[in-house]
């Protein structure tokens, strides 16, 4: 088990480096550079700027310097767009924000989703089932870029209960709408997957055996049905966890939370190379770690899986 | 240069207290309006600012903050006229090549140090230095400072730049060419002073709220990237006692509709009106919806370089396409924010020059359409030989609506087939800059309030002339205008040439279209560059 974990982490380093190299070259292939602007800079001004940021060096040299700075100084480079800050600043400021509302949204989506799914499966074809299924569909039909404006209209403009945006160090009134907006569509998916998985498990042979030996229904569900039910849910949750932390650009845009999602997208649009690469590395590392955790969780959920 | 004897806010408070009023309410010293207790102005910005370093900042959002934090030689008043800033007056030599600015002796940095001529010299050398590599080095060149080009190119040390501190309160500026509007250029952020000690002590971190020292009416107290930045009263500012707003907050809200909702919920004092919504908002909130002319134009440019289509080299085709554009439909139905229709390249709002009324402007749309058909037929295009070309614009809802309407107008009136392509901003700039287009969208906001900031774009040598229009007479007139005592007749002639040769299709000129809380006093609606200063605003008690 331990050797497996170490092996996986060792593979992660070249994986992320490959990711960075791919991102680096794709970025340079995209037309326009960080200093392409409506007002073309005089050549000598452009030359000064490129010299300052080392962009006058050949690409391989730039890539080499980039890796050297990371490994030797843990320095992810400057931002070309936000000249008062560097990439380390941007990540240090934005990531805790994304992490906070992302984890809360993840928790909310999993808890509510799994509960709804199980309740629906146990009370199959009753009003509870129909309610859970329709709620799931409704939540999925309202992606976060629709939820955002609807929530702001309702809770800020009409009811006046919550501030329309901002972060303010993560005080709870500022957290509620981002968390709801981000979690609902995953909640719907999780409920749907849990429900169908539970229904399948409840019809399987080992449950029939458990019933036959007279176990109470509660024990059957908790002790025998739960783990196999959650297996497909966990494989869905892994990528979702990474996604809620990274795919939150809509939350950042609608609620001005200041998270990393918005920085990521705008760095791509403005060709802010170092910012784009820095966040790519962070997301890559996050994906690798979460995938590893998901795989380890499989072993706990399914005794047939061994590492 | 006028100076008001103003009763100060504190005088009012004191006298109110002395007279025994328990709850004194301050009033504005000039208008007498009752002032709100909470003097905080909160406004929406589209995006995070690029920097608050005066020599580095390159976006409008950042420049607005820098104008509050730092004060240059000259300021603008509510109408855009020059008024004293750190300089109380200036002298100009007869050849207009040397300006001497006299600095006030009571100007202070927020740490209490005096603001000296040396701070300006330091800042201007810094702006030009290849070491800092500011994108605004071009502005130093534009100012025509002596040796600017050589310093920027690294051929001379920054010390050779044409700016000298004669003493602490006298700044001498030497130019390489006469420039009658030089003082206007000192209201731009690039020319603001920088605190040498602080810059040298903290390096790139000097603009962080915990380190920054500034000489304007405000200091930066909080900066949460992509969320908000806060600037608060600078007690050391020389005119602090006449400053009313205590605190200005810029909230970053990317989505304009969310911003409007938050305005309606009372979280903002000012926000932009999304395109097309002005008429409704004006009806529902007449006291809050405001629109006023701004110094920007919106146009389409023909590619007249070798890579451009043959058809666009025929002036009749260019004329026909421009004539067939019903600008009224675009300004009234798409933008709907009170934008003026454009028949000249220079906006009417510009100072010191009234663009001529062109022949096209005098015609009715029906006459224009008839003439357009005639011209296109003369040029040899018609049902048998239809005119076809591609047009590009950068991705945006509003640009798309306008582009679609243009193609429809040309198709219906002239049978012209224009194929649309939208591009992401950087790709668009690259494509347009490489003359890889037939017809391309363009827009420009004046760097300073003078017609040449627009007309220079059409100089054959200009780096911004993406359509590669070239007319030696226009180039010659542009040179003459730089040193002429009265440049208006020269600009009129240029506009007349443009109206005849039609290198671009002017569509409309911009308007500032805001939702502004009715308790905000003194917003400079007549300042067409929208150079506003928090220190000139106030909040009225509701």
TrEMBL record, chain A:
Keyword check for Cell membrane: yes
CDD domains: TM_PBP2
Stored Gene3D superfamilies: MetI-like
Membrane topology of this protein: Multi-pass membrane protein
Keywords, alphabetical: Cell membrane, Membrane, Transmembrane, Transmembrane helix, Transport
Transmembrane intervals: 9-30, 104-122, 134-160, 172-191, 233-255, 275-301
Pfam family, one: BPD_transp_1
Gene Ontology cellular component annotations, sorted alphabetically: plasma membrane
GO terms of biological process kind: transmembrane transport
Keyword Isomerase listed: no
InterPro entries linked to this entry: BPD_transp_1_N, MetI-like, MetI-like_sf
Residues in ABC transmembrane type-1 domain copies: 95-294
Localization per record: Cell membrane
Superkingdom in the source lineage: Bacteria
Record-stated family: Belongs to the binding-protein-dependent transport system permease family.
Protein name from the UniProt record: Oligopeptide transport system permease protein
The species this protein was found in: Primorskyibacter sedentarius
TrEMBL record, chain B:
Matching Pfam families: SBP_bac_5
Top-rank taxon, per record: Bacteria
Subcellular location: Periplasm
GO BP terms: peptide transport
Membrane-traversing stretches: none
GO MF: peptide transmembrane transporter activity
Keywords from the named record: Signal, Transport
Annotated signal sequence range: 1-24
Main location: periplasm
GO cellular component: ATP-binding cassette (ABC) transporter complex; outer membrane-bounded periplasmic space
Family the UniProt entry places it in: Belongs to the bacterial solute-binding protein 5 family.
Protein name per Swiss-Prot or TrEMBL: Oligopeptide transport system substrate-binding protein
């Amino acid at each position: 088990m331990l050797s497996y974990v170490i092996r996986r982490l060792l593979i992660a380093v070249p994986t992320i480096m490959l990711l960075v190299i791919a991102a680096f070259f794709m970025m340079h292939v995209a037309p326009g550079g960080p200093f392409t602007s409506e007002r073309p800079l005089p050549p000598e001004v452009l030359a000064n700027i490129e010299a300052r940021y080392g962009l006058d060096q050949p690409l391989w040299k730039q890539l080499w310097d980039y890796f050297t700075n990371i490994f030797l100084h843990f320095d992810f480079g400057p931002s070309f767009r936000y000249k008062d800050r560097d990439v380390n600043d941007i990540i240090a400021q934005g990531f805790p924000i994304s992490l906070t509302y992302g984890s809360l949204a993840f928790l909310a989506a999993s808890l509510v989703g799994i509960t709804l799914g199980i309740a629906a499966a146990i009370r199959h074809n009753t009003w509870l089932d129909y309610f859970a299924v329709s709620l799931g569909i409704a939540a999925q039909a309202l992606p976060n870029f629709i939820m955002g404006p609807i929530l702001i209209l309702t809770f800020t403009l009409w009811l006046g209960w919550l501030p329309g945006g901002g972060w303010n160090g993560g005080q709870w009134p500022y957290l509620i709408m981002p968390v709801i907006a981000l979690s609902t569509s995953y909640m719907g998916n999780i409920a749907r997957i849990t429900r169908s998985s539970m229904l399948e498990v409840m019809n399987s042979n080992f449950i029939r055996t458990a019933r036959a030996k007279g176990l109470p229904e509660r024990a059957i569900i908790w002790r025998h049905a739960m783990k196999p039910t959650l297996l497909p849910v966990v494989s869905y949750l892994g990528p979702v966890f990474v996604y809620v932390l990274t795919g939150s650009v809509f939350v950042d845009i609608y609620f001005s939370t200041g998270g990393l999602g918005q920085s990521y997208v705008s760095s791509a649009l403005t060709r802010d190379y170092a910012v784009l690469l820095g966040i790519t590395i962070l997301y890559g590392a996050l994906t690798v770690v979460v995938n590893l955790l998901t795989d380890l969780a499989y072993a706990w959920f399914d005794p047939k899986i061994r590492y | 240069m006028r100076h008001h004897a103003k009763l100060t806010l504190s005088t009012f408070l004191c006298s109110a207290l002395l007279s025994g009023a328990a709850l004194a309410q301050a009033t504005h010293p000039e208008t007498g309006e009752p002032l709100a207790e909470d003097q905080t102005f909160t406004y929406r910005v589209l995006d995070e600012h690029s920097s608050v370093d005066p020599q580095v900042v390159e976006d409008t959002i950042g420049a607005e903050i820098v104008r509050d934090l730092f004060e240059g030689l000259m300021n603008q008043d509510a109408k855009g006229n020059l008024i004293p800033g750190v300089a109380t007056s200036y002298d100009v030599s007869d050849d207009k090549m040397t300006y001497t600015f006299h600095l006030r002796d009571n100007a202070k940095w927020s740490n209490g140090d005096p603001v000296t001529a040396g701070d300006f010299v330091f800042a201007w050398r810094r702006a030009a230095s290849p070491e800092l590599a500011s994108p605004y080095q071009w502005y130093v060149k534009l100012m025509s400072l002596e040796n600017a080009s050589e310093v920027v190119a690294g051929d001379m040390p920054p010390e050779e730049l044409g700016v000298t501190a004669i003493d602490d309160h006298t700044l001498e500026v030497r130019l390489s060419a006469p420039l009658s509007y030089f003082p206007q250029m000192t209201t731009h952020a690039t020319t603001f002073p920088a605190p040498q000690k602080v810059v040298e002590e903290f390096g790139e971190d000097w603009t962080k709220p915990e380190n920054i020292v500034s000489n304007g009416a405000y200091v930066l107290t909080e900066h949460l990237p992509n969320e908000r930045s806060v600037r608060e009263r600078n007690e050391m500012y020389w005119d602090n006692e006449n400053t009313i707003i205590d605190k200005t907050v810029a909230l970053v809200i990317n989505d304009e509709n969310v911003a409007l909702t938050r305005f309606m919920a009372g979280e903002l004092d000012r926000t932009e009106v999304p395109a097309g919504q002005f008429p409704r908002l004006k009806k529902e909130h007449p006291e809050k919806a405001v629109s006023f002319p701004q110094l920007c134009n919106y146009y389409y440019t023909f590619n007249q370089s070798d890579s451009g289509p043959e058809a666009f080299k025929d002036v009749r085709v260019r004329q026909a396409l421009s004539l067939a554009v019903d600008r009224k439909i675009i300004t009234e139905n798409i933008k709907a924010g009170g934008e003026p229709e454009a028949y000249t390249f220079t906006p009417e709002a510009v100072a010191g020059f009234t663009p001529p009324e062109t022949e096209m402007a005098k015609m009715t749309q029906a006459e224009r359409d008839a003439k357009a058909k005639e011209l296109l037929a003369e040029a040899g295009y018609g049902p048998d030989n239809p005119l076809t070309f591609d047009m590009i614009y950068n991705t945006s809802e509003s640009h798309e609506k306008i582009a679609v309407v243009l193609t429809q107008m040309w198709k219906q009136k002239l049978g012209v087939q224009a194929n649309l392509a939208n591009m992401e901003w950087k790709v668009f700039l690259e494509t347009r800059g490489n003359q890889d287009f037939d017809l391309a969208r363009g827009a420009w906001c004046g760097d300073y309030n003078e017609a040449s900031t627009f007309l220079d774009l059409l100089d054959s040598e200009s780096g911004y002339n993406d359509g590669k229009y070239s007319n030696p007479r226009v180039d010659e007139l542009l040179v003459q205008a730089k040193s002429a005592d009265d440049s208006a007749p020269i600009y009129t002639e240029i506009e007349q040439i443009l109206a005849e040769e039609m290198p671009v299709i002017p569509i409309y000129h911009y308007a500032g279209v805001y939702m502004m809380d009715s308790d905000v006093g003194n917003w400079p609606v007549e300042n067409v560059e929208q150079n506003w200063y928090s220190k000139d605003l106030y909040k009225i008690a509701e």
